[in-house]
Amino acid sequence: MKKLLLLLAAVAWLLGNDTAHEFAKSAECQACHPKIYEEYYGSMHANATPDKDPIHRAVWDKHPHKNKFEQYSCGKCHSPAADNLDAMLTKEQKALHDPKNETHQEAVSCAYCHRIESIEHGKMSNTNIISKEKLSFYGSTRSSLESPYHKIITEKNDHFANGNVCIGCHSHNLNAHGLNLCSTNVNDEMSTSNCVSCHMPKVDGSFSSIIETKTHSFHGFAGAHTNSDMLKKYVQISILRNIDHFIINVDNQTSHALLLHPMRLAVLKISVTRGGKTEELAEEQFVRVIGKEGKPAMPWVADVTLKDTMVKANEKRAVRRDFKLEKGDKVNVTLGWFLAHPESLKSLGLENEKAAKEFHIFKKESFGF
After folding, report:
1. In CATH, what class is 228-368?
2. pTM to 2 decimal places
């Protein structure tokens, strides 16, 4: 009987705790923040759920938690505005992603991010601590602001100003085997930049229709999926010509690897144009492969990094090609990536999915001689 009472108490606590996951709908923000909402609506924050991100769906479809009808364990970061988030993350509960549940479709909502009060650091991953004040939002502005719809808190929270608001989800993620699946290396910050300043740069336009400003922080969240052109200035490409070869330097000036997720594949394409004809040289691939027993494996199975040629934080990678350049030659360089490694498409059922197959061009340079 005592065990039963304890179990009932635990369930009651979980259900009661789930009621704390009540967030204003992102669509409600549109009236006063039209520009920001437009940017956000096309971002991966707004499209992080299995229904909106086909690559995430393909991985989730193979997850044992889904196949055993248990929890949507990805919900912690992919749909944190869900009204039953706690149940999603609790082994004793049955709470899968529900495409008919509006709160699940909110994904990483406006209200969720702006109610992050603090970050709880953990060995496996970090956790966002959410304010219990449903209509009190945090921001990076330092001026005193008023809104007829919600309270704006600026004096108690520095996480938005210093960029740490992102590290609740984007710091590190260890699986059950202790393998760090994805890390931003947040302890190695750039001297003048952070997550927000790079991925949410200031752009033209007022952040609100009530309070006029010349600029606002970009809420399309520049990254591997979208708006990556905003990040070009942090990766420089140069060339060094020698007698019988040349070297392409890829200088990653950020505090994290060029790409973070082990599903990605970055490619450096190199060609030489001479006399109106172009010769394609061998491409260079940058990748991190995780696996088990010497073979690539899904994130929840992998226990080791099998291969890691990804350009690291603050690294200048030299790529040599044994090709003798002549006067009049032009070396063409293209750096880009696939969101899903081409070799994984068939096993994930993504061979006909455009988002997975597309080569995303990040930066192109040409060097004449």
Report:
1. mainly beta
2. 0.90
